[in-house]
Amino acid sequence: MAQNLIYSNHVAQELDRAVEAIGPSNIVVIVDTNTKSFVLPRMQSESSAVAKATVIEVMPGDVNKNIDSLSTIWEQMQQAGCNRSSLVINLGGGMVTDMGAFAASTFKRGVKFINVPTTLLAAVDASVGGKTGINFNGLKNEVGVFNEADTVIISSTFFNTLNNQEKLSGYAEMIKHALLSSKEEYDTLLRYDVTSIDPDRMLDLIKTSVAVKEKIVTEDPTEKGLRKALNLGHTAGHAFEELSIERNSPIPHGFAVAYGMVVELILASKKLGFPTAELTRFASYIKENYGIFAFSCKEYDRLIALMHHDKKNSNASEINFSLISAPGNIVTDCTADDEEIKAAFDIYREFSGQ
Fold it and tell me: Concatenated DSSP letters for 125-162?
C-alpha cells in the first residue's frame, strides 16, 4: 500500500505536511474538468502546495482514460519543467488517480505522486493499492504498472459534491470488500444509507473497507494469488461496462461491479454452495438500489468474448473468477466455461425481471 495512508477530513493541512516532507523541486496537480470546478478552488485557497502548483486538466469520464489524455499530461509535465524530483498530486476520482499515477510512474522513469481521491469510488478502490493505468483499444485498464503512491489522503469531505449515482458507484466497491471480509461487515453496509452521508461515520466505514484491501494487497502486492480476490464482481462487471461503452451508453464502474457481483455470486452458488437465501437477498438489494443491466441472450457471446480478454485468465479456453463460498470465505482461481456463464446470465436476467 501507499507509504503513508492518511484518513482525515483536514485535507489541506495533511497535504501540505506530506509535500513538505517530500521537498519537491516543483509540483503539478492533475484534475479533471469537474474537480477543477468543484474542488480545486477550495484546495488552492487552503493548501499552499496546491496554490503554487501547475494545474493540468483532463476531460472527465472513463472514456478519456486513454493514451491521448496520457500524452497530454506528459507534454504538460515536460512544459512545466518536471524532473525526477518533481511531485504529482492527483486530485480527483478514479480516472484521475489511475491515469495521473501512471503518468507520474512513467515520466522520467518515475516521479513521486500523492493521491487525493475526491469520490467515494476512488477513496475505497482506485487511489489505493498501487494499480495505475489507462484503457486501451476498447479494453479496461489494459496498459499500466504497479506503483505505490507516496501518500494517499482519504477524506469524506468532498462527497457533498457527488450525486447519488456517484455515491452508489463507490459503495459497490465497499460492499465487495465487506463480502470478502465478514458477514458482520456485509450486514452493516446493507443497512447503511449511502445517499445520506454523515462525513465522520462515512470516514469510519471507509477506513474499515480500505483495511480489507490493505491487508490483501500487503500479502500479495502484484496479484499473484490472494489479491485476485479483489476482482470479485469485476470479470463480469468489466464486460458489462465495456458493452455499455460499445452501446454509447456507458454505465458507472461501480454499477457494473454491482451487476457483476450478482452474476458471480450466482456462479458461486452453483460451484461453491454460496447460500441461495443470501444470493436472493443480495440480488434484491442490487436491483432496488442500482437497477438492472438489461441485455438479451443475443449479447451473451459478445459479453463472454469480452470476458475472455480479462487479464486474470490463464488460458484461452476458460475464464477465471474470484468467488466466495460465504461472506469472508474467499476462493480464487475458479474457472467457468461458456455454458456455465450463459446459465448464470439466464438466472441474472430472471432476478432482474428481464
Answer: IITSSSB--EEETTEEEEE--B---SEEEE-STTGGGS
Cβ-contact 330, 180 below 8 angstroms: yes
Nearest partner of 288 among 351, 235, 349, 335, judged by Cα: 351
- Cα–Cα dist 55/63, whole Å: 21
Q: Tell me which residue has cell 494545474.
A: 55
Q: Secondary structure of the chain: what % helix, strand, coil (to 5)?
A: 55, 15, 30
Let me know if 288 is exposed, middle or buried by CB neighbors in 10 A (0-12, 13-18, 19+): exposed
Look up cell 466455461; give the residue. 337
- Report whether 176 contacts 164 (CB < 8 A): no
Distance CA 159, CA 106 (A): 30
> Which among 196, 194, 56, 177 has a CA at the least distance from the CA of 113?
56
Q: Give me the residues of the chain with pLDDT under 50, please.
A: none
pTM of the shown model: 0.85
Give the per-residue pLDDT at 315. 63
Helices (H), 47-119: 48-51, 67-79, 94-106
Task: Please give the Cα distance from 133 to 105 (Å, whole number).
Answer: 10
- The beta strands (E) that lie in the chain are given as 4-7, 27-32, 54-58, 87-92, 112-117, 134-136, 139-143, 151-154, 319-326, 329-336
**In terms of C-beta density within 10 A (0-12 exposed, 13-18 middle, 19 or more buried), how is residue 302 classed?**
middle
3-state secondary structure of 85: coil
**Nearest-10 Cα torsion for 225, 229, 232, 234:** -50
Strand 329-336 vs strand 319-326: parallel, antiparallel, or unpaired?
antiparallel
